[in-house]
Input
Amino acid sequence: MSGDFQEWMSAVQSRMEAALSECLPRAGVAARLHEAMRYAALGGGKRVRPLLVFAAGELVAAKEETLLVCALAVELIHAYSLAHDDLPAMDDDVLRRGRPACHVEFDEATALLVGDALQTRAFELLAAPGLMAPARQLELLATLARASGSLGMAGGQALDLASVGKTLSQPELELMHAMKTGALIRAAVFLGAGCGGRALSEDRRARLDRFAKRIGLLFQVVDDLLDCTASTATLGKTAGKDKAADKPTYVSLMGLSAARDYAGYLHREASFALSGFGARAGRLMALTDFICARQF
Output
C-alpha cells in the first residue's frame, strides 16, 4: 500500500469521524438515545464504505461536499445494521470494534432505537434540499433504500438467520452475502459515482457494477477467512463466532485454502472491471488491494 493511499485513507477516515460527530445529536431531549447513537457510530471502524464513496467520486470528478453527505448516509446505515446485528435475537455478539456492543453498553431496547434513529438520520441527510439535481438525488435515495431493505441488507440478514445449521450451495451463499454485505457496498460505489455532473455511460456503468459486485463478495470472503484465522483482539469482535453458531461460510463450504484462492480470484476480477477507467480509478484499485490484503 503506497504512502499516498495511506495518507488519503487516513484523511478520509478523520474527516468522516468529525462529520459523523457533527451530524449526530449530542444531548437535550432523548439524551440517553443520543449518547447511544454516538457510541454506535463513532470511535472506530475502517470506514470502508465512505472510502468507496469518495474513491468512486473520483471517477466523475464529484464535489467533496456532496460526496461527504453520501458517505455519511451510507455509514449511518452501516452503523445501524451493526447495532441490530449484535443483538441477542440476531447474531448475539457482545463485542464490536474492541468494546462492548451497543446493547451491552446500554440495553437491548436502546440498541433497537439506535438502529432506527441512525437509519432515519441517514435518509434525512441524503434528502437535504439543494444537495444535487432533484432527479439525481431521488435516484440516489432509491439506491440506498433498495440496498438497505428486504431485497438488500435486511433481506440478506433474514437469509443468514434462516441458514444457521444448514449447508448452502455456493450460489445460495453468494446470494445471501450479495444482499447482506454486498448490497450496501455496491450502493456506496454508485452513490459516489452518482455525485458527478453527468451520468456514466451504459458501458461504464456496467463495468462499475461488475466491480461493485465482485468487491462486495471479496469483502465477505475475507471476513469469513478472518473469522477463522484472526484473534478477537485483532478483529475487535468475537473470533470464531460463525463456526460456533454453525453458520455457513466460504471457509465451511470450500475449506481455508480454496477460500483464499477464491478471494484472489475476486480481487483479480474486481481489478479487471476497473481497467477501462484509467488513472481516475486509482483509489478504487488501491481500495480493492486494501480489502483483499487484510491479514488472513
Notes: The chain has one domain: 3-292.
